[in-house]
Give the backbone structure.
Amino acid sequence: MGFKLRATLFVLWVIFAGCAGARKLTYFNDIAATAGTDSLNRLPQMRVQRGDVLQITITTFDKDVSLLLNPYQSGAPGTPGSGLEQGYLVDSAGYITLPLAGKINVLDKTTAAINDQVAQELGKTVKNVFVSTRLVNFRISVLGDVAHPGSFRIGAERASLLDALSMAGDLNVTAKRDDIMIIREVNGVKQYATINLNDSRTLSSPYYYLANNDVIYVKPGSNRLFPSSKTVQLLPAIIGVISLLTTVVILSK
């Protein structure tokens, strides 16, 4: 086999290897590279679990009554149910205790349902009650082969797996994109799921949207072809230099 043919085949191999590696670094490879839409299941609603901390804001037309119904907002020390987060801690039985309303079961309920429940209970003694509930200790943890592993606080009621990975600085190039583990606790029972970010069906998975205290573990890949992130980042430059040198050698013959 002539030198020119061998050199050409080598350059082609390097280029194809780089393309194959780049494809492994992308997400949702089965989605066509054109504009379009896809139907998703109805978005899941966050449901309150034991150990959650709820910020319940209750307003009325009477300022004194409103102050009484919002003790944790007054800054008074020793507020029941308050801790690192100001709010009502859901106890092991799924209850919170509110002024005037007493104990209320909020386990596995949405914030909208809690709003209605609290307003109905307080409406027995107070007129014109308006209630707003939010989860204030919504946190997720991202571990493994990511740029910045750690625990992250979520300011909204909903966050997706991609949101969490973005907070963690995205996956490293050595990470396994088709084998990401999500650990979730529901009513004291641990659940485990494996997510494949190369498959668009992940967007419809019940684990795509995260729950409070979810743990995301990103497994490292073997990446024998590209052992380090720096190597992959420099791959286009390496291919360009090799191609240039090969062309010079071929032309000089």
